[in-house]
Amino acid sequence: MTDEVSASVRDYIRAAGGGLIVGLPLLFTMEVWWHGFELPWWKILLLLGIGFGIVLGYSSIAGFRRERTVTELVLDSVIALGLGVVIAAVALVLLGQIDGTTSVREASGKIALESIPIAFGVSLAATQLGGEATDGDDGANPFERLLIAAGGALIFALNVAPTEEPMLLGIQAPFWLLVLVIGVSIVVTYALVFLADFGGRLRTGAGILGHPWSETLTAYAMSLLVSVVLLWSFGRFDGVGLGPIMGMIVMLTVVASVGAAVARLLVGGHSEASSD
Predict the structure, then answer these.
(1) Where are the domains of the chain?
(2) Torsion of CA 260, 265, 269, 272, to 10 degrees
(3) For residue range 8-61, what is the model confidence (pLDDT) as tens digits?
(4) CA 28 – CA 20 distance, rounded (Å)
(5) Other Cβ atoms closer than 10 A to 121
(6) Which residues lie closer than 8 Å to 201 by C-beta, 6 or more apart?
(7) What SS3 class is residue 37?
(8) Which of 97, 73, 139 is nearest to 272 (CA)?
(9) Cβ atoms within 10 Å, residue 186
């Protein structure tokens, strides 16, 4: 086996491993199996489209190959999603969730939903699970980190949005508690990214996102948007009043915002952040 072939095999094994690390919790979540054949096709396609867009962004920052043309970047993203589909299909068969009696509609819906987080893991695997950084690579800039934040929010929230817990917590929570949860979520994610020194504080720069607090608030807003899209996609808003809807969004954003923070840490720079 030549060195080039050996490196390619290693890359794909790493990619599959990264996909399983990220996607394994959802593969064991029965609510996702149900939603795979309960959701209308256009909602599943919408989620796949959003997922592919974020995978494309991930691949541009942390994909299989650092030096690529636009065509190669798109190809890497398609490969990442394709690997996600293959891994999801094989895993669901091994788990007994797809067999000879499963309809094409049910099987394809399950595979489509399960492939989204797996594809995220695939696209990040090269740099975060053993890939080497290139010379002069001091981490993603704030705009890149916000793109990664959206993916992290989607990965984490996707594990919770199909379940009943966000709905129950949102319905039961009084207004004052929701306000408190928002404040605590913002402070916690700020501390995780800029104060905890996980591998070095992230660098900041000039511009509207150049300050840690402005980046934190923008990432939280993106996490809110991700929560809205997921809750709506899974039908959590159907027949529900505005108060419970706001409660569900806030509670799911707790998970989404932590996911956004973790993702920003994974791809962020390792130089000292400005505190101005």
Answers:
(1) 1-137, 139-276
(2) 110
(3) 777 778 778 878 877 888 888 888 888 888 888 898 899 899 888 888 877 776
(4) 12
(5) 26
(6) 194, 195, 271, 272, 273
(7) helix
(8) 139
(9) 18
